[in-house]
Amino acid sequence: MQYPLDFLDGFDKTLLFWMGRYMHSKLNSLSNRQVKDPDILAHIIGRLRTGADDIEEMSRLAKEARNTGLIGINTYYKPLEKLYHYLNRLGLASMKEIDEELISDFLASATASLSDATKKNYRIAMINFFGYIDKQNGEDDGTSHRYGIELKNWGGLSGKSGTKLPSFMQEREVEKFLDAIDNFPFQKAIAVRNRLLIKIILFTGIRVSEALNLKVKDMIYENGIYMIRITGKGNKARVVMIKASHIDKYLNEWLAIRSCEKELLFCNKKGTPLTQAYVSRIVEKILMSVGIRKEKNGAHMLRHTFATMLYLKKKDLVLVQEALGHASLDTSRIYTHFDKERLKEAAGVMDEIASKTKER
Question: Could you list the residue range(s) of the whole structural domain that residue 85 is in?
Fold first, then answer.
């Protein structure tokens, strides 16, 4: 039976639901020849089928399964348990906000001190889990969401670096998108807020969650530049900058009408925080309004666009890492794959030898 990707109300409950479904399938597929008490195992499988109440119960069920003799269960469960806590700390609003870069960041932080063999197990667990969801999710209209998590060259393993190529906009598409931001028919009450929010994300490459957690005091003006204080993953602080000319008009208009709780820079009409799912929806609508189609049209694609443009224009991988707040340089290295000029140099490496051969 298939279920909608965001099956339940609340990201934590939905993620727990998919973990339960996945673990249920794994318990049925693992060898049970060493199981000491089949009745206990049957109870655990039945409980996972109906759904654990919380992550603590899920962890207890996994431990009971191992204790009763289901060897290998921790290889699949432990990485998911860490993933659950990691993703919930980020404050995601929808399962659709998860992508390969996010999983790569998780692996980099969760496996830093582990052996290569254990890192490999974590990678396999991520691929299997999201591969399971790819096959099992489905909407009433027949559509489904596909993660396509592969982690073919995940940088946590010795001698390997990089990850799946992300979607991003070319320069002409960015020009069209910027025009569309200014002209999209938003409701009057939220137009300046949405335009300011999207431009900050696009011009700085910050994560959507980081933008939504900004406070007014985090915007520091100095000599035509706004320095923006960011609290990123793991409460790591960094500073990004944006020219005032890009946002001044919308920022001043929004500050004059905003009424947000806890000094938040962005909020909804009730004064409470916006969700990442909402931001992704409005970005997708703007993209569609000017005919821009990408494999992933959500707001996270703006971050990939910024990072790609930054590397292509500055050729400084460390700058990309610092601007985006990546824990590992390997996560940033993916953007070197878009450097066509360097690839052209590689294409011509045999030219001199080939020309000599022709002259003979």
Answer: 11-136
Residue 183 and residue 127 share a domain: no
Distance separating alpha carbons of residues 234 and 188, to the nearest angstrom: 36
Catalytic-role residue among 24, 207, 296, 304: 207
3 is catalytic: no
**Is residue 233 among the annotated active site residues?**
yes
pTM for the whole structure: 0.57
Tell me the mean pLDDT per 10 residues along the chain, length 360: 88 94 83 72 86 92 84 85 92 86 87 85 93 92 88 60 67 94 94 96 90 94 92 75 94 95 92 88 92 79 88 78 72 63 55 62
d(CA 293, CA 168): 10
Count of domains forming the chain:
2
Tokens 């592969």 label which residue? 150
Identify whether 145 is a catalytic site residue: no
Instruction: Write the CB contacts of 340 (distance below 8 Å, at least 6 apart in sequence).
Output: none
Q: What is the rounded radius of gyration, in angstroms, for the C-alpha atoms of the chain?
A: 23
Q: What is the CATH number of the domain that holds 287?
A: 1.10.443.10
66 annotated active-site = no
211 and 263 inside one domain = yes
Rounded Cα gap, residues 26 and 126, in angstroms? 13
Nearest to 6 by CA among 16, 288, 20: 16
Q: How many CB atoms lie within 10 A of CB 275?
A: 19
65 located within any domain: yes
Write down the pLDDT at residue 214: 95
Long-range contacts of 133-137 (CB under 8 A, 24+ apart): 133/5, 133/18, 133/22, 133/95, 136/2, 136/3, 136/21, 137/2, 137/3, 137/4, 137/5
One domain, residues 53 and 180: no
Q: What's residue 16's pLDDT?
A: 94
Q: What share of the chain is helix, strand, coil (3-state, %, to 5)?
A: 60, 5, 35
**pLDDT of 48:** 86
CA 30/CA 11 separation, integer angstroms:
28
Instruction: List the catalytic residue out of 26, 193, 296, 326.
Output: 326
Q: Is 326 a catalytic residue?
A: yes
